[in-house]
């Protein structure tokens, strides 16, 4: 039996997509070519790798085992190729990065300026989007890595939590008295401005509410952070935002906002970096990830370490 790298690549894509149409689109080939290669692979192995249904291609036990065996081979092949192409050279290449709008607004410009100055042979392409779309692009190879608010386990995407940060209750400068600490259940009557349901931050808020059997019906749904801040600043609208976002709105845009701590345990957002297991990060992509992650951690470092220690103490008690 002879199996070439192209067949392995085709098989892995079909296994992950479970659809000939989506896998062919991801591989940028026509569907008959993909079907022919998979059929040839099955004949060579002597076992069916997929059960065909009108809606999807379901991996058989043989297909599950082949995926488990072939995935690390392709991952190591990608790493070896990357090392050979760039060994001994200055960093070069093109890095494609995706971000949700709420991440890195106040740190990204500085990171970009310093990175390009240090690595002039590296070009960067940065796009903003919502979590599901960005992770789909990483899985399909359109992005090298992305930073989002949550970790979604989607084959073949691997995720690393860069840090966690607290979410706070945000109001404008008005005369409504709120206690220093509030719970989400106590705020259900407020006029909330929240992101749309497709936004990762909205998902975090709704998960926290479910844990407390609460419910929020936002008066306005908007994904733009600046629009939300303008609504909140001089009105009775309120919101829930990560601490770093509020700091950036105050320091960079001079928004007059008040924040209040939430009583809800563990109400925080993760900043997560996702990359494709089958397309190991290039040296340039890894260097940019290190630069951005280090800056993000530095912005939150002391508070982050303190909260981590507090959680460890709470877990032991």
TrEMBL record:
<dbReference type="InterPro" id="IPR000847">
    <property type="entry name" value="LysR_HTH_N"/>
</dbReference>
<protein>
    <submittedName>
        <fullName>LysR family transcriptional regulator</fullName>
    </submittedName>
</protein>
<dbReference type="InterPro" id="IPR050950">
    <property type="entry name" value="HTH-type_LysR_regulators"/>
</dbReference>
<dbReference type="Pfam" id="PF00126">
    <property type="entry name" value="HTH_1"/>
</dbReference>
<dbReference type="InterPro" id="IPR036388">
    <property type="entry name" value="WH-like_DNA-bd_sf"/>
</dbReference>
<dbReference type="GO" id="GO:0003700">
    <property type="term" value="F:DNA-binding transcription factor activity"/>
</dbReference>
<comment type="similarity">
    <text>Belongs to the LysR transcriptional regulatory family.</text>
</comment>
<dbReference type="InterPro" id="IPR036390">
    <property type="entry name" value="WH_DNA-bd_sf"/>
</dbReference>
<dbReference type="GO" id="GO:0005829">
    <property type="term" value="C:cytosol"/>
</dbReference>
<keyword id="KW-0238">DNA-binding</keyword>
<dbReference type="GO" id="GO:0003677">
    <property type="term" value="F:DNA binding"/>
</dbReference>
<dbReference type="Pfam" id="PF03466">
    <property type="entry name" value="LysR_substrate"/>
</dbReference>
<keyword id="KW-0805">Transcription regulation</keyword>
<keyword id="KW-0804">Transcription</keyword>
<dbReference type="InterPro" id="IPR005119">
    <property type="entry name" value="LysR_subst-bd"/>
</dbReference>
<feature type="domain" description="HTH lysR-type">
    <location>
        <begin position="3"/>
        <end position="60"/>
    </location>
</feature>
